[in-house]
Design goal:
heterodimer; A: 875 residues; mainly alpha; Immunoglobulin-like; 3 domains; three-stranded antiparallel beta sheet; disordered C terminus; B: 608 residues; 23 helices; globular
């Protein structure tokens, strides 16, 4: 809240204070080195902790990591205020800092080179983002310093965490797509390392690998989008794309790739025609869809969402920071950043909105039945990310981005709260899965008041309790889904217009998801904090020492099962344990801050009360893009019913959950599950999408790889190496028979050879050398000489020999008219009376008027002459 | 500022880098601290020394010492001969001697960076060798071969240093082979006379054959034969093509020469051009290797000792791509341009995809890395076929990158092989617990190999992919090819991360791995410069690209010119000789034996 009021004040230009003046002088807009400071601090932290961390000790590592992120946050605050105070009117403020030239890229056709700099820029959008990243990042660093306290990989954890902050800042601050991509893959790498942080369990490492590879599929989309942008727009930096983006409206031939499909020739005519028919799509659609593939990978949208639930294998603070608050929203950030490109294509936008809406509902259905509290939160994250894409997809960029903010607050709070609960459960339950299972929780409200209250605040926000942050952001998205659409452009071919039913479908998906969200979050909330505690029987003065697990902190490892000998005990009433306790202040302070933000953050953009500082602040960023976003007729009348519906959705969802899980102790849910066992198990198994992928795509690639290996071994190596070897050794065996050393064999070979030579000499050959001069029409044939040869000719082509006898004449010359053709016959007789005959056909072509052949010949000859002369001259 | 203060500020970055570097190793080995510190200081030196300085005037060739290349190329040969007179009984001394020669060679080769890499030939040195056949000793470098020479002088000392750690028998022979191989590779990169090039090209084969056949694994003889025969077949085709071109030139110009500058002026008749192009490209594509000629590579790698594998991957394969750029594109632009789209499709489908898929299924880590080479070299060749500025620059950079990261991977595989005498993935698992430094370094190099931004691999791949998108030469297929190549990065992640997971993560299942020692001093010292280069190229590729761009432009200009001439019918009416243009690209053009020297003086002044 403090943030919002302070930049409210800054929106109206005021007299710059001396501090501001000094800052502006120190960091001019075109050389904004402050960005370098913001970026360098976490990088230094990562380097120091990574290389020296093991020797530095726990305190020094904590100091390094926390101060790096904390100072980066302070610098971000300064930068944020500089952006907000530099604003005059509706102009876009963009501070830039170019570090060095990275490399140059060829533009279309290789006619020019566009330099690609390691450059960063800060505008309103990224200013808000860096505050979130470093702010929430600092809180989570603080939280982790306690949560990870006893982990042997403490320094490694903070190295990765600092590296993540650095990568995320690069992603947000990068001034061009490739620099963004550096951060994009960098956060993916950190995510990989952190998911597999406890790598001695195979499934953690597998989850990390899965995340990385799924993200790579998205990165492929981003790479292609960059290639296409470079080709059509000729630039990859924000201002370059912005100024030339209209070039993307040009139609691109998608099919056939060459001039025609080779297959079409052998097909029936109609089918061939259909196959060969050129198909066009606008460049913007192509770029938009490929960019969205990248976003879907990073932000866990259908069909690439499968990695995010598995990513919960990482330590809980990681889930809060990376897999809820920051990294997974990078896709939404990219959509906002490229808003100008996306709105050029109604197709791409509709796909984004539809996928977003569908993901929101789909993930929510899975979350309904999960018992692992982190899994519930993970699917909830996927679902909320779907909302964000629904928002930006319908062109409500600010609303979508606003949900990024509020989601960062409440979801980070929920995850950290869950971490705090898991931490408490670890007092007695050390198995990862069991310590996160809500069936063993309950009633924790009494033992963990701070966690309970903050969790309640975040719960209120996510279910859309009126006036909390989530209420405003979700409401705004649903409102826009129902009323706004992206207008087509008249330029692009094959233009797509949003269907009239589109609004109701998009809104319907979002609204249904909203009811489900209220339901499953209430279920989770009740499951953890209300009812009786089900983990173990609480015994006062319980001696933890028996289990070699001292009370304070107990490690906070999510994953400690095999290091302690007592994981075999089943949790439940039979097990005894101490009173669950509240977490230390390092863990509760972040909870409190985030809880307050979850409640109050909504007033950053509360359109219902006409308070929208965020919209004003971000306005210039989307100023151009929103021109193409239109509202349907009569949208004003829909506002109140839709808001009313949002409240109803919240009430229905949470009251039903309240009734089922608190009033009826979960009995109706069990009955329902027993009634539809297949649907229930399908939901428990997450619709078996992982299995589907395993059977189809992964299976196909796997067998393809097996085929390749077989092919490589037996075909390639078989033919090139083995077959060649076999042929050579066989011919060696055959030829060896000739080298026997027996005189008789050699004599026999000699006889055969002599006979061959004799036969050759006896055979007459009617070979001849001809010369033709088409221009004068004179032709000449000279027969080859031979031992005792006589010749006779048919020179006039009448089929009769000129003379019946064989003579000595070897050469005949004759001339032809234009376009005349004549066949000359020659017969040769040798000394032994054997004859041979041959025909020669001559024709004199018409002088070529097109001049091509003659000209080509002439040039060729001249070239040749020139070449000779050129060389001669130099001599 | 006083001179002392200035000197202090000049020296401060180096000292700081040295100190930070020296602090990095955890154990107290002076050698390791010193080496890592020096690598740190050298990185700063590279950064400051290569940084484009706008204020500095473009100096002409005045400060190029013409014998520098001779020194670089012949130092290993002289060393090899000197080695023959040293006692076999003191292997330590022989090893030190070899390392000194190689290290000195690297140091001397750094002076090549002193020249401003403008268009044309640098450090050119020409002298008659066999005048009766027009064969000359003609060496020079341009921006393309400069980096190949430096890559060679940089990698061989590391490879030799690693090899000396694990090889115990026939040390003298090994040293001799290393020096001979080193000299031959350098010679092949700088030779501009085709006869000279062929001599070096063939000379290279023998030490490598010995390295595989003598110090290799169980099936070493078979692998050595396979390596030798594959390469030899290509070489013979190339020799035939060389002779044909030389003869044609003789017919046209009236004098014999084997010089590249002169022979690249010959336009052959169509069929002959295709055949000669095929002869040359067969030799180079086998070396790269491109499908279906790649099967010698996994066998050779698996059997070769670690040092040999490093050289094979880092340098020998590059001779194929270098040769293609220099000779195929330089002399047969028409056929090369016409084959480019098809060949680009081939290297994508059968290099990038097929190589990656086969790599994924390998049980032997070394075989896996060998197949990954096929995939990486596919990227390099794609950049070459795309023939755009950034495509070719990316390909050249990717050649250096592949040298660094594959060399490092082979080194790392050697580390585990030395300890366990097996390279089977299933033998390992959970190694990160017992060998944390090794695991960290392996993962870092993996990231470089799969092209994570910030490391060297990304820049090369990215430039190649973007260059493919922009390509004119690939016609309507450029977008498809670019997109498919981009999809190749997914598979790279699949096979590399799978092997990382199987080797390093999960529980430590195999008892035999429980007490493995982490990387020793020798291995760490050998890795340090490679790691430094990973980041240096990843963050500052311009340092390298700036010095090659002019030469790449020149190469592409000639290529495009040849392609246009071909499509306008050059060679359709028999052989011809293109006109000379003069300019820096033709300094050192061979003259007929009777000509006066006056013309030679004219060459440099002619405008391009």
């Amino acid at each position: 809240m403090q943030l919002s009021t302070s930049f409210l004040a800054q929106v109206t230009p005021v007299e710059p204070s001396p501090v501001q003046a000094a800052l502006t002088q120190l960091f001019p807009a075109d050389n904004f080195v402050l960005l370098g400071v913001i970026l360098a601090l976490p990088l230094i932290g990562a380097f120091v902790n990574g290389v020296f961390g093991k020797r530095l000790g726990r305190e020094a590592v904590t100091l390094m990591a926390l101060s790096a992120v904390g100072l980066s946050f302070v610098a971000s605050l300064v930068a944020f205020f500089m952006v907000s105070s530099a604003r005059v009117g509706d102009e876009l403020v963009r501070f830039q800092w170019t570090a060095w030239e990275w490399f140059r890229l060829s533009t279309a056709g290789d006619f020019s080179q566009t330099p690609l700099n390691v450059a960063f820029s800060l505008d309103a959008l990224s200013a808000v983002m860096i505050l979130v990243i470093t702010g929430i990042g600092s809180l989570i660093h603080l939280y982790s310093s306690k949560y990870m306290e006893e982990d042997p990989g403490y320094y490694r954890f903070f190295t990765y965490l600092n590296l993540f902050i650095f990568s995320m800042l690069v992603l947000v601050l990068g001034d061009s797509l490739p620099i963004l991509f550096v951060g994009w893959e960098g956060v993916g790498l950190c995510s990989y390392l952190l998911i597999g942080f406890w790598f001695d369990k195979s499934e953690n490492a597998s989850a990390g690998k899965k995340a990385f590879i799924t993200n790579r599929i998205g990165d492929f989309g981003l790479l292609v989008a960059m290639g296409l942008l470079l080709y059509f727009v000729g630039a990859l930096d924000w201002s370059g794309i912005e100024s030339n983006k209209e070039a993307l409206l040009a139609p691109v031939k998608l099919w056939p790739i060459g001039n025609e499909v080779p297959l079409a020739r052998i097909l029936p005519e109609d089918a061939g025609k259909w196959l060969n028919q050129p198909r066009y799509v606008s460049g913007a659609t192509l770029v938009g869809l490929f960019l969205f593939l990248g976003c879907a990978g990073k932000s866990a949208q259908i069909p690439l969402y499968v990695w995010l639930p598995d990513a919960m294998a990482g330590p809980t603070p990681v889930s809060a920071l990376i897999h809820a608050a920051t990294m997974v929203t990078a896709g939404v950030y990219l959509m906002c950043r490229m808003a100008g490109v996306f709105v050029l294509s109604p197709t791409a936008m509709f796909v984004v909105a539809l996928v977003g809406g569908f993901t929101a509902l789909f993930a929510a259905t899975i979350a309904l039945v999960q018992n692992d509290i982190k899994k519930v939160l993970a699917y909830s994250t996927v679902s909320q990310l779907g909302y964000m894409f629904l928002g930006v997809g319908v062109g409500a960029f600010v609303a979508g981005f606003f949900h990024v903010l509020t989601h960062a607050f409440f979801k980070a709070c929920l995850f950290l709260g869950a971490g705090s609960v898991i931490h408490a459960m670890h007092a007695r339950i050390h198995d990862t899965d069991q310590s996160q299972d809500m069936r063993y929780m309950g009633g924790l409200r009494k033992f963990m008041p701070v966690t309970f209250l903050t969790f309640a605040a975040a719960w209120a926000a996510i279910v859309g309790f009126p006036l909390t942050s989530g209420f405003f952001s979700k409401d705004e998205i649903l409102l826009k889904a129902n009323t706004s659409f992206v207008a087509g452009t008249s330029v692009a071919q094959g233009d797509f217009t949003w269907p009239a039913w589109g609004h109701w479908v998009l809104w319907g998906l979002g609204a249904a998801a909203a009811i489900l969200t209220a339901f499953y979050m209430t279920r989770l909330f009740i499951g953890i904090f209300f009812g009786e505690f089900r983990g173990w029987t609480i015994v006062r003065g319980y001696q933890a020492a028996v289990h070699g697990h001292a009370d304070a902190g107990h490690g906070g490892h999510d994953d400690h099962a095999d290091e302690h000998g007592h994981a075999h005990e089943q949790p439940g009433p039979d097990m005894q344990g101490p009173t669950p306790h509240e977490s230390p202040w390092q863990m509760t302070l972040p909870l409190v801050v985030l809880g307050i933000l979850s409640l109050a953050g909504g007033f950053l953009s509360a359109h219902l009360f006409h308070v929208h500082p965020l919209d004003d602040f971000l306005g210039p960023v989307f100023g151009d893009a929103v021109q193409r976003v239109k509202l349907i007729k009569g949208h004003e009348t829909r506002t109140i019913p839709l808001v009313a519906f949002a409240v109803v959705a919240f009430l229905v969802g949470s009251l039903v959950a309240y009734w089922i899980y608190l009033q009826a102790k979960g009995e109706p849910a069990r009955k329902l599950a027993a009634q539809f066992p297949r649907l229930h198990s399908l939901l428990i198994d997450k619709w078996r999408v992982d299995e589907l992928y395993e059977e189809t795509i992964i299976g196909a690639v796997d067998s393809l790889a097996d085929m390749c290996v077989w092919f490589d071994k037996w075909v390639v190596d078989g033919i090139l190496a083995r077959l060649t070897t076999a042929i050579i050794s066989l011919s060696g065996t055959a030829l060896r028979q000739l080298q026997t050393g027996r005189l008789q064999t050699y004599a026999a070979a000699m006889v055969v050879g002599l006979a061959g030579v004799g036969w050759f000499l006896l055979t007459p050959r009617a070979a001849a050398h001809t010369s033709a001069d088409h221009s004068s029409g004179r032709y000449e044939i000279t027969a080859a000489p031979g031992f005792g040869y006589g010749y006779r000719w048919d020179s006039d082509g009448d089929g009769q020999w000129d003379a019946e006898d064989f003579g000595e004449q070897r050469t005949i010359a004759f001339s032809l008219q234009t376009e005349e053709t004549r066949t000359i016959r020659l017969e040769v007789r040798n000394a032994f009376g054997r004859t041979a005959e041959r025909e020669f056909t001559f024709s004199r072509p018409k002088p070529d008027k097109s001049g091509y052949v003659a000209a080509a010949t002439g040039v060729g000859a001249e070239n040749l002459k020139n070449a000779h002369e050129g060389v001669g001259m130099k001599q | 500022m006083s001179p002392a203060a200035r000197a202090f500020f000049e020296a401060a970055p180096y000292v700081a880098a040295f100190v930070i570097g020296a602090l990095i190793p955890r154990r107290s080995s002076v050698l390791e601290r010193l080496a890592v510190g020096i690598v740190g200081a050298l990185s700063v030196l590279a950064l400051k020394g290569l940084w484009p300085d706008a204020a500095a005037p473009v100096t002409e060739k005045a400060d190029e010492w013409p014998h520098l290349l001779n020194v670089v190329v012949f130092m290993p040969f002289v060393g090899a001969i000197a080695l023959l007179f040293l006692p076999r009984q003191s292997p330590k001394f022989l090893q030190r001697f070899t390392l000194t020669v190689l290290g000195l060679n690297f140091f001397v080769s750094l002076f090549l960076l002193g020249a401003t890499m403008t268009r044309g030939w640098h450090f050119q040195y020409i002298t008659e060798w066999i005048p009766s056949l027009g064969i000359r000793y003609h060496v020079a470098i341009d921006g393309v071969s400069l980096w190949m020479v430096l890559l060679t002088t940089f990698t061989t000392p590391i490879a030799a240093y690693v090899a000396f750690g694990s090889v115990r028998k026939r040390i003298k022979d090994l040293c001799f082979a290393f020096l001979l191989l080193h000299g031959a590779m350098l010679g092949a990169f700088v030779a501009l006379d085709l006869f000279l090039f062929f001599v070096f090209w063939e000379l290279m084969l023998i030490p490598m054959l010995l390295m595989i056949g003598v110090w290799g694994g169980l099936e070493r003889i078979k692998a050595a034969y396979k390596f030798f025969l594959y390469t030899m077949i290509g070489s013979m085709m190339m020799l035939a093509a060389i002779l044909y071109v030389v003869w044609t030139h003789y017919e046209l110009a009236g004098y014999l020469t084997f010089d590249y500058l002169a022979l690249s002026k010959v336009t052959l008749p169509r069929t002959a051009a295709w055949l000669c192009y095929a002869g040359f490209s067969l030799a180079f594509l086998i070396k790269v290797p491109v499908f279906p000629f790649h099967t010698w590579l996994p066998d050779a790698h698996v059997q070769a000792p670690t040092g040999g594998s490093i050289i094979l991957a880092a340098v020998l394969l590059k001779l194929g791509t270098y040769g293609y750029i220099r000779f195929c594109m330089g002399m047969f632009a028409g056929p090369a341009a016409h084959a480019a789209t098809t060949l680009a499709g081939l290297v994508i489908a059968m290099g990038i995809f097929y190589g990656a898929l086969v790599a994924w299924k390998q049980d032997d880590v070394k075989r896996l890395v060998a197949y990954s080479s096929v995939a990486h070299m596919g990227f390099v060749m794609l950049g070459v076929f795309a023939a755009t500025q950034s495509g070719v620059e990316g390909a050249l950079l990717q050649m250096i990158n592949h040298g660094v990261s594959s060399g490092a991977l082979f080194l790392l595989v050697g580390v585990i092989y030395d300890r366990r005498h097996t390279r089977m993935v299933r033998e390992f698992g959970g190694l990160a617990k017992v060998m944390p430094v090794y695991a960290a370094v392996f993962i870092l190099i993996t990231m470089s190999s799969i092209g994570v931004p910030g490391t060297n691999g990304f820049v090369g791949e990215f430039m190649v992919i973007m260059g493919t998108f922009a390509s004119n030469h690939l016609g309507a297929f450029s977008h498809l090819h670019g997109g498919l190549a981009a999809a190749g990065v997914i598979l790279a992640a699949v096979y590399m991360l799978s092997v990382v997971q199987k080797m390093f993560f999960g529980p430590l299942t195999n008892e035999k791995n429980a007490n493995l020692s982490d990387m020793n001093v020798r291995e760490s010292v050998a890795m340090a410069p490679l790691i430094a280069l990973v980041f240096l190229i990843g963050f500052f590729p311009s340092l390298f690209l700036n010095r090659m761009s002019d030469s790449v432009t020149a190469t592409l200009d000639r290529y495009i010119e040849g392609r246009i001439a071909w499509s306008q019918g050059a060679g359709a009416e028999g052989a011809s000789l293109r006109e000379r243009r003069g300019g820096p690209l033709e300094t050192g053009y061979p003259l007929p034996p009777s000509s006066t020297r006056a013309v030679a003086a004219m060459d440099g002044k002619e405008a391009h």
